[in-house]
Design goal:
Strand content: under 5%
Helix content: over 70%
Largest sheet: none
Structural class: mainly alpha
CATH superfamily: Clc chloride channel
Number of helices: 9
Shape: globular
Number of domains: 1
Oligomer: single chain
Radius of gyration: 18 Å
Order of helices and strands: HHHHHHHHH
Length: about 210
């Protein structure tokens, strides 16, 4: 039987690889959306684009308020184990799409909080799926995996592993997760580098100067 500490590190490494793939795809989605809006709607005023996106988000907020927002509240809910697997999958899909759509019209906005939310959802969902497999005979702590997922996804998108590690240590108020954070962030960095996915802010800067 694998020791719990080693099992955790192995699972954190797997999570880092998965989230790294997701981060590379997320970056491509952001850039694809920006290029799509700029080429298909070059003459549409920014205010009209903002109204279009805002109306869509407003409709979602009216129907399901917990799906929208900056992401801070949802992160706290994920860390409080308020979501089951089905709810996490739904929230992941919605926030993934909203993140790309909201940023694509070149409107003033941020990536930071949405990144942390997607990472938290991914980590929590991964832990719940692990716990759903009886053959593993292992109980993954959902909160720990959510925190590690936040750091790994942030690292995959921004390519700042040590910043991601320190950020989560500061947020969680402890250093007990440091080995897992390092393992996951290194794995996320390796997979995004292997896929040739540059840091999102580098891509955005190059795109801005090339226009």
């Amino acid at each position: 039987m694998v020791a719990p500490e080693l099992a955790n590190l192995i699972l954190y490494a797997i999570l880092g690889l998965i989230v790294g793939l997701m981060g590379a795809l997320y970056n491509r989605n952001i850039l694809f959306g920006l290029n799509l809006f700029s080429t298909t709607m070059p003459n549409i005023p920014v205010a009209l684009k903002a109204a279009f996106v805002g109306a869509g988000v407003g409709l979602i907020a009216y129907w399901q308020p917990s799906w929208v927002g900056g992401g801070e509240l949802q992160v706290q809910q994920v860390l409080s184990n308020n979501f089951g697997a089905q709810a996490l999958i739904t929230l992941l899909i919605v926030r993934w799409l909203l993140g790309s759509i909201s940023y694509s019209p070149s409107l003033p906005g941020g990536l930071f909080a949405p990144l942390l939310l997607v990472g938290a959802i991914s980590g929590a969902l991964f832990a719940q799926l692990i716990n759903f497999i009886p053959a593993l005979a292992f109980q993954a702590d959902t909160v720990s995996f959510a925190l590690v997922g936040m750091a790994a996804f942030f690292t995959a998108v921004v390519r700042a592993p040590f910043t991601g590690v320190l950020l989560i240590i500061e947020m969680s108020g402890g250093v007990i997760l440091t080995p897992g954070l390092l393992v996951a962030c290194v794995c996320a960095t390796l997979i995004t580098s292997y896929m040739g996915s540059p840091p999102i802010y580098d891509s955005l800067r190059e795109r801005m100067f090339s226009r």
